[in-house]
Write a structure and sequence with these properties.
Structural class: alpha+beta
Number of helices: 9
Order of helices and strands: HHEHHEHHEHHEEH
Strand order of the largest sheet: 3-5-4
Shape: globular
Number of strands: 5
Radius of gyration: 17 Å
Distance between the termini: 27 Å
Number of domains: 2
Strand content: 5-15%
């Protein structure tokens, strides 16, 4: 729930063309920020996200006037967020920090940390909308808005998630404009249709 809320907030607060890497960095900053808009990001966190030393990502968020460019030589990196909405976050920083940790390895979807940022971001968005059912769904409009991708780009990314066994299957219902998916379960039997790119979920 916290990650869903943060992703929805960032979809409004950041420009549509914001890169996936910048969105994931902004998510960590937003979830870890205190009520004064200050956030501290350890070097180990940035390394695990493959963003350590990526000055262009910070510059992208600074250019969007979402934060001040931090001193990347400091450890941890101390960030000052500029969006007034951050100051109005509901209490529960501990819960938001737990959500920030979950966002690094979202379950039940699994993806290598070395995967491209675009794949990791869409995996995070799907995981944040995955419930207790076997087949999960969300509007295509929500996916495009939260990930900053077009419908065509999303379809290619979803195919790649099937190829790397993060998803067992997915389908775009063009009548309802919903995207349906099944997480890949290790050692489970998945029918041939679910192993083809863009399989149909029934």
């Amino acid at each position: 729930m916290r990650v869903q809320e943060a992703l929805t907030y960032l979809a409004t607060a950041l420009p549509r063309f914001t890169s996936p890497a910048a969105r994931m960095l902004a998510l960590q900053c937003a979830l870890r920020a205190d009520t004064h808009g200050h956030a501290r990001l350890p070097a180990g966190l940035l390394r695990s996200m493959r963003l350590h030393g990526r000055t262009e990502i910070w510059e992208e968020l600074a250019h969007a006037a979402w934060l001040h460019s931090p001193d990347l030589r400091s450890t941890p990196v101390e960030v000052q967020l500029l969006d007034a909405a951050i100051l109005e976050q509901v209490p529960g920083r501990r819960a938001r920090c737990r959500a920030a940790h979950w966002a690094l390895r979202p379950t039940p979807l699994h993806l290598s940390a070395a995967s491209p940022p675009a794949l990791r971001l869409i995996t995070l968005v799907l995981a944040a909308h995955t419930g207790d059912r076997t087949v999960h769904s969300v509007d295509m409009d929500v996916l495009t808005r939260l990930s900053g991708h077009s419908t065509h780009q999303l379809e290619e990314l979803l195919d790649r998630l099937v190829a790397v066994h993060a998803l067992a299957a997915w389908h775009h219902n063009r009548y309802t404009d919903e995207v349906l998916w099944q997480p890949f379960v290790q050692h489970s039997r998945v029918g041939p249709a679910a192993r083809r790119p863009r399989p149909i979920i029934r």
